[in-house]
C-alpha cells in the first residue's frame, strides 16, 4: 500500500511538473510572439519616422525649389557652426568650402588664410606620392624635360634667324642653308599667292559671265516690253495735240504751183487753197499760225 501511494504521489508530482512546464512554455512562446510583433511594429514605425518623422528626411534630392533652398541654408549654417565648434573645442585646423547649386561660394577657415590650409593639404596629399615615386621614373621625367627644353631653345633660335636676328654666330655654311631655306619659303609663298590670285580672277570671270547673261536677258525683256506697248505715231500726235502740247512738225516747202492757184483779177474773190501772202494779215489762232508752212509728221 505504501508503495502504491508513493507511486501515486510521484505520478501526481510528475503530472504537476509537466503542467507547469507546459504553462511556462506557453507563456514563453506567447511572450516571444509578443516581442516579435512589437519588433515588427517598431520596424514599421521606424521606417515611417525616417520618411515622415520630425528631424528625419529621406536622403534624396528635394524637388521643391523653395524647400531645397531653405534646407540648404539651414544645413549650411549648421555645418559652419559645427566646423567652428570643432576648431575651438579641439584646437583643430578646419577649412570648409561650400558651393551652392547657383555657384555661390561659402567658406570657413580656422586659420588666418585658407590658402595656407590648402597648401598644407596639397603637401600632405601629393608630397607622399612624389616621395614614393621610384627614382627611375623621376629620372626619365627629368630627361624628357631637358629634351623638350632643348627643342624649344632650338626653335626659338631658328625663328630669330629667320627674322634676321642673331646671325653673327652662324658660319658660312649655316648662312647658305638659311638663305636656301628662305628662298624656298619665298617661292612657296609666291606660288601660293599666284594660285590665290588666279582663283580670284576665275571667280570674277564667272561672275562677269553671269552678269552678262543676266543683262542680256533683261535687255531682251525690255525690248519685248517696248514692242508690246508701242503706240502708233499718229496716235501720239493726236494725243499731244488734244493735250495742248507743242507738236514737232516737218517743214514743208511752200510751192507757188499746185492744185489751188490765186485767180487773176482785181476783184477780191474767195480763194480756196494756200495763200502765203495773206497768212500774216488774217486773224488766225495761234495754233493755225503754227500750221502755216508746216505739215505734221503724221501727215507725211
UniProtKB/TrEMBL annotation:
Residues 138-228 form the K-box domain. It is found in: Nucleus. Signal peptide: none annotated. Keywords: DNA-binding, Nucleus, Transcription, Transcription regulation. GO terms for molecular function: DNA-binding transcription factor activity; protein dimerization activity; RNA polymerase II transcription regulatory region sequence-specific DNA binding. The keyword Nucleotide-binding does not apply. One of its GO terms (biological process) is positive regulation of transcription by RNA polymerase II. GO terms for cellular component: nucleus. InterPro entries: MADS-box/MEF2_TF (IPR050142), MEF2-like_N (IPR033896), TF_Kbox (IPR002487), TF_MADSbox (IPR002100), TF_MADSbox_sf (IPR036879). It comes from the Eukaryota. Residues 52-112 form the MADS-box domain. Gene3D superfamilies: Transcription factor, MADS-box. This is Uncharacterized protein. It comes from Citrus clementina. The lineage of its organism: Eukaryota, Viridiplantae, Streptophyta, Embryophyta, Tracheophyta.
Amino acid at each position: 500500500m505504501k508503495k502504491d501511494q508513493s507511486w501515486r504521489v510521484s505520478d501526481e508530482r510528475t503530472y504537476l511538473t509537466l503542467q507547469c512546464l507546459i504553462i511556462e512554455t506557453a507563456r514563453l512562446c506567447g511572450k516571444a510572439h509578443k516581442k516579435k510583433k512589437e519588433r515588427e511594429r517598431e520596424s514599421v514605425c521606424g521606417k515611417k519616422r525616417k520618411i515622415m518623422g520630425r528631424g528625419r528626411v529621406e536622403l534624396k534630392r528635394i524637388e521643391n525649389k523653395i524647400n531645397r533652398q531653405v534646407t540648404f541654408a539651414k544645413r549650411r549654417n549648421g555645418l559652419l557652426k559645427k566646423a567652428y565648434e570643432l576648431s575651438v573645442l579641439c584646437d583643430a585646423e578646419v577649412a570648409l568650402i561650400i558651393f551652392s547649386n547657383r555657384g555661390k561660394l561659402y567658406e570657413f577657415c580656422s586659420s588666418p588664410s585658407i590658402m595656407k590650409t590648402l597648401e598644407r593639404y596639397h603637401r600632405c596629399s601629393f608630397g607622399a606620392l612624389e616621395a614614393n615615386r621610384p627614382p627611375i621614373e623621376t629620372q626619365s621625367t627629368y630627361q624628357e624635360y631637358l629634351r623638350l627644353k632643348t627643342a624649344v631653345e632650338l626653335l626659338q633660335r631658328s625663328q630669330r634667324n629667320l627674322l634676321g636676328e642673331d646671325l653673327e654666330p652662324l658660319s658660312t655654311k649655316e648662312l647658305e642653308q638659311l638663305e636656301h631655306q628662305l628662298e624656298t619659303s619665298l617661292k612657296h609663298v609666291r606660288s601660293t599667292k599666284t594660285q590665290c590670285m588666279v582663283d580670284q580672277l576665275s571667280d570674277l570671270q564667272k561672275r562677269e559671265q553671269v552678269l552678262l547673261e543676266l543683262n542680256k536677258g533683261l535687255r531682251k525683256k525690255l525690248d519685248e516690253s517696248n514692242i508690246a506697248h508701242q503706240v502708233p505715231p499718229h496716235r501720239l500726235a493726236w494725243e499731244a495735240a488734244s493735250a495742248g502740247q507743242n507738236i514737232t512738225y516737218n517743214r514743208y516747202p511752200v510751192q507757188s504751183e499746185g492744185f489751188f492757184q490765186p485767180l487773176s483779177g482785181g476783184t477780191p474773190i474767195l480763194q480756196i487753197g494756200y495763200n502765203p501772202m495773206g497768212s500774216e494779215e488774217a486773224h488766225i489762232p495761234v495754233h493755225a499760225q503754227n500750221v502755216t508752212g508746216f505739215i505734221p509728221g503724221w501727215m507725211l
